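Justification of computing resources. Each target in the renewal requires a structure prediction run like the one illustrated here; the chain below, 165 residues long, is used simply to show the kind of job we budget for.
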Amino acid sequence: MSAAEDNAKRPRGRNETEEERADRMWVELIQEVRVAQMGVQILFGFLLTVVFTPTYRELPDTDRTIYIVTVVLGAAATGALIGPVSLHRLVSGRRIKPQAVSWASRMTIVGLFLLLATTTASLLLILRVATHDPFVPWLVTSVLLWYLVCWFGIPLWARHRHTSR
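Resulting C-alpha cells:
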C-alpha cells in the first residue's frame, strides 16, 4: 500500500465531543487574543500620551482629526479584543461554551480589523508629522496592503486551499 493510500484510509480530524472541541478552541482563541491584546494595549497606551505633549498643540487640524480617529479606533479595538475574556467570565459554567467560542471568535475578528485600522491610522499620523512628503499615503497604503496579506490574505488562502468542504 502506498503512503498516499495509507493516508487516505486514516481518519481525519480529532475524535472529540462538541464540548471537548469547544474547550480546545477556547484555549487556542485565548492564546491568539493575548498576542493581539498586547499589541493594541501598547499602541493605545502610547496614543493616550500624545495629547499631553507640547507638539500636539502645534498639530494642524487634519493631524488632530487623524489623532482623534486613531484614539477612538484604538479604544474600540481594545474593547473588542478584551470582550472574549469578559464573555467567558460572564457565561462560564452555563454550558454554552460552543456558542461562547463562536461569539468570542467574531469579537476577535472585529478586534483585528479595528487593530488594523488603528495601526494604519497611527502610521499615517506619525509619517505625516515626521515628514510632509507626498509619498506618505503611498507608503501607508503599501503597509496596509502588507497587513491585509499577512493577517487575512494568507490565512484565507490556506483555509480555502487546505480544507475540505
